[in-house]
Design a protein that fits this description.
Blueprint (H helix, E strand, L loop, with lengths): L2 H21 L6 H6 L6 H12 L2 H14 L2 H28 L4 H9 L1 H32 L5 H22 L1 H30 L1 H12 L7 H5 L14 E4 L2 E4 L2 H18 L1 H8 L4 H4 L1
Antiparallel strand pairs: 1-2
Helix pairs in contact: 1-8, 1-9, 3-9, 3-13, 4-7, 5-12, 6-7, 7-8, 8-9, 9-10
Length: 290
């Protein structure tokens, strides 16, 4: 990376972190901290949930797995996650919202007792702590793997970012997190468009992409159903049109069955994972939640 690149990174992230500290000033009650005063608009919630769902661990692990296994991994994951999110926001989380709960663990206590609430809270702590560790490690692997910085500098940058984000999160609560997430989402989407256009032009458009795929491994085929791996997995016309693959093993399974399975997983993620439900419960209305 050149000086201009570092300047862009520092200015963007510095501005976002600074804005998080600015928003933290008005937090004065538990409702402010947990629910952002229930004043969050739908578009900010959506952008925040997007930024939370697509963290650096996804950018490293999901991208790498998609490269080795094929786009079927990303296709069914994205479809199931979207459908699961819709089910959660329309039919599951509204019950917690109407009851005025702050957390999904509080809802579990109302249904099953305090022991369930404590167990749920402990599971959430273990789960999110593990995820944060994976996210931090993936950032380190990205910075050092691409030779952007050395290992010592990488950890120093990570520690600085963690401390700053931890302070404005603990100080400002949900409001600071959601609005900084929204800004980060815009940066991510703009960056994605720039990368896509750059690679699209470098590959020579759709025809150039197909030629490069065919040249890389002719056995993979270039038909669209082969590329998304929801049809003929290896391009063989004698194979079932409903083959899907995982870790090199192919199974004659209809794609809708796979999507249904991922929908169940996605619904669980958007409902059990408090990092997502807390954003929904901070909505200014049920309409904004949905």
């Amino acid at each position: 990376m050149h000086a201009v690149d570092w300047m862009i990174v520092l200015l963007l992230n510095g501005a976002i972190i600074g804005y998080g500290f600015y928003l933290a000033r008005g937090t004065s009650s538990s409702s402010d901290w947990f629910l952002g005063r229930r004043a969050l608009p739908w578009w900010a919630i959506g952008l925040s949930m997007f930024a939370t769902n697509v963290d650096n661990a996804d950018l490293v692990s999901v991208t790498g797995k998609t490269y080795t296994e094929g786009l079927h991994l990303l296709t069914v994951y994205a479809t199931g996650s979207a459908l699961g999110g819709i089910l959660a926001s329309f039919y599951i989380v509204p019950a917690m919202y109407r009851a005025g709960f702050y957390t999904n663990a509080e809802y579990l206590e109302a249904r099953f007792g305090p022991a369930t609430r404590v167990l749920s809270a402990l599971i959430q702590l273990q789960y999110r702590s593990s995820m944060l560790g994976l996210i931090i490690l993936s950032v380190h692997l990205l910075l050092t793997g691409l030779n952007i910085v050395d290992a010592t500098t990488s950890w120093a940058l990570i520690v600085a970012i963690v401390i700053c984000s931890g302070i404005y999160t603990a100080w400002g609560g949900l409001k600071s997190v959601v609005w900084t997430d929204a800004l980060q989402s815009v940066v991510m989407m703009v960056g994605s468009v720039v990368i896509f256009v750059t690679l699209w032009q470098a590959a020579g458009g759709w025809s150039g992409t197909l030629q490069k795929l065919a040249a890389r491994d002719a056995s993979e085929g270039t038909h669209f159903t082969d590329l998304v791996h929801l049809g003929r997995f290896n391009g063989g016309s004698s194979e079932s049109p409903y083959l899907v693959s995982w870790n090199g093993q192919t199974t004659d399974l209809a794609p809708y069955v796979v999507i249904m399975g991922w929908t169940i997983v996605g619904c669980g993620y958007w409902t059990v994972n408090h990092t997502q439900t807390m954003r929904l419960m901070g909505a200014r209305s049920l309409w904004d939640m949905k």
